[in-house]
Each structure stands twice: as structure tokens, then as C-alpha cells.
From TrEMBL:
PANTHER family: O-METHYLTRANSFERASE CICE, PUTATIVE (AFU_ORTHOLOGUE AFUA_4G14580)-RELATED. Residues 166-334 form the O-methyltransferase C-terminal domain. It comes from the Bacteria. Signal peptide: none annotated. GO terms for molecular function: O-methyltransferase activity. InterPro entries: BVU_1015-like_N (IPR049480), COMT-like (IPR016461), COMT_C (IPR001077), SAM-dependent_MTases_sf (IPR029063), WH-like_DNA-bd_sf (IPR036388), WH_DNA-bd_sf (IPR036390). The keyword S-adenosyl-L-methionine applies. GO terms for biological process: methylation. This is O-methyltransferase.
Amino acid sequence: MNFYTKDTKTALESKDLAQWIAFGPVVFQVAKVLRDTGILTAVEESGLKGLTQDEIVEATTLPRYGVRVLLESGLGIGLVILNDLRYTLTKTGHFILHDPLTKVNMDFVQDVCYKGLYDLEASIRNGKPEGLKVFGNWPTIYEGLSQLPAPVQKSWFAFDHFFSDTAFPAVLKTVYKNGIRNILDIGGNTGKWAIASTRHAPDVHVTIMDLPGQLNVAKNRIAELGLQDRVSFHPANLLDETQPFPTGFDAIWMSQFLDCFSEDEIVSILKRCHQALDDNGYVLILEAFWDLQRFETAAFCLQQTSIYFTALANGNSQMYHSKVFTDCVRAAGFEITQQTDHIGLSHTLLSCKKKI
């Protein structure tokens, strides 16, 4: 990956980008309001003919002043263009309206991150998610996830599931090709991996290990699908090092989970995985590493997602560089026997066994 080895911008381009950064929060909010109020939709539906400002006011029933300032800002952002006093949509405006990745990222930043990011510097200095107080007084967002306001939960889960939904179908055959039938799913969240696994193979049994609040969400979903005989539950606080992991499994699965922890915590969790498995057991880790992306935009999205962990989630984790992460794997007594990159949108699958 050579995205970040050279400064390729001219001085003028660099100064332009600096202004985009300075007005970044304004740009974000204008784009979201243009999307949510229907202004971009109205302009898009007019096609190449476009709409005048007055026609947009009529179509959206918004005040003329508000429409004017939003459209003029939208010109600078690049969401619309203006010819003969008629506005038409740009390609960027189209993506704001219709691109699923853009939508899930924008909703996540607005609903989950935006207010809490004000306390980013305090989070950096204190090593705690100081921005989380906008939602509640929990040590991490995970204890409070089931208590977040419904719109915030919706955006959080949509963001989380968007990436796993593209990766799970691609790895199911790989995970279960070597006869794994009894698997421990640590950090199973809403049970999506357990459900995908039971649908993939009729003789697979999954035990989900997670915080009690999260398990309640998964239990309800599992019960709705009639999978109670195929899925078990093990409540636990993974940060409590005195709690041993259950044993008797062919493999331990962790997807988009270990990025929720600091390096020391990752090593601690993996050491307890080491103790729970026999010498033939596997640890299978599905993660997105910013340095292993095919496209710079993907790396950018992951790097910025790290700031959510800093300010709101827990104050000490991130979307990791692969070397930092694999050093933790080896420090816990495992060797990586297989690494498969470019799964789904952004993921890597690490297959790990105990060092001999």
C-alpha cells in the first residue's frame, strides 16, 4: 500500500484542502440537510432541465432564504451546478442520494458520532470516551448499546452490519470446510454470524458469548427464527480477566470484535482463547485493516472510523494497521496459518493456531 508515502499536492491544492477541513462540519451538515429535506431529490427528478430556486422552494415547501443558502453552499461543495439560473445534480450529489456506503457512513457520523466528537481532544488526553456522555454514563458504548435512542441504535447497527453482510457469505465455506461443527462466537452482537452459520450447515452449533444486554437482542432474534436448539448463549464481560472462556469448541470466531479493544486487551482476550482451545482448535478472526485496502477511499473510511472508537466507543481502540494487530496475535501465543485479504468490502480473515 503506497497511498501515504508522498505529498503529491501543490501548495494551492494543499491550501484548498485545508479550507475544506476547516469547514468540514459545515460541509457535512449542509450535505445532509440537502439530502434529508428533499432538495437534492427534487433537483435530480428534474433531470437535465434542472430547477430554478423558486421551483425548488415550491417543490420542497421550505423557506426561500433557507433554500438559497443551502443551494449556494451546495454549489461550493459540488453537489449541484447552476446554469441559466437552473440547478442540476452532479455525480457527487447522486452518490449522496443513492450510494449505500455513503448513506450508512453519513447516518453513522450524524446519529452516533457528531455531538460526541466535540470532546475528541479530552478523549485523546484521558484515554476515555469522553464524548459518550451525550448518550449516557457508561464506561464504554457497549454497555449502553441496548439503551441508546432508537435512531442512534438503527444507525449504529446499520453501519456495523453493512460491512459484515458483504463479508459473511464470502467466508462461510472457508470457515466450515475443515469440519468445524461446534464454534464459540465471541462478541456475537445481534447473532448475525450464528444465523448465517446455522443456515450454511445443518450440523453446526454456535455459542454466542457477549455482554448480557447484547445477548438479549440476539436471543430474541434467534427465538423468532426457531433456532434455539442450534444456538446457545454465554453472558460475560470480556474485559474481566478473571472470567475464563468456556471450553470444548472446535474453533473460536471473532468478527469485527477485537477492534473494539486496546492492544493489551486484545492480547488478554486471545490468551484466554488460547487456554480454552485444545491444540487442534482454531481462532478465526475477521477484521478490516486500513493498510490492506485496495482503494485509498477504503483506507480513509477505516482511519476515520478509528476516531469513533476514541471519542465514543471506549477511548483506546481503533481500526488497526495489520502489523499492530498481528503482533498482538503472536504475543498471545498464536501463529497465523492463513491470511485471506480483500473479503467483501474491506475484510481480512486470519486463521490462527497455537504455536508449537
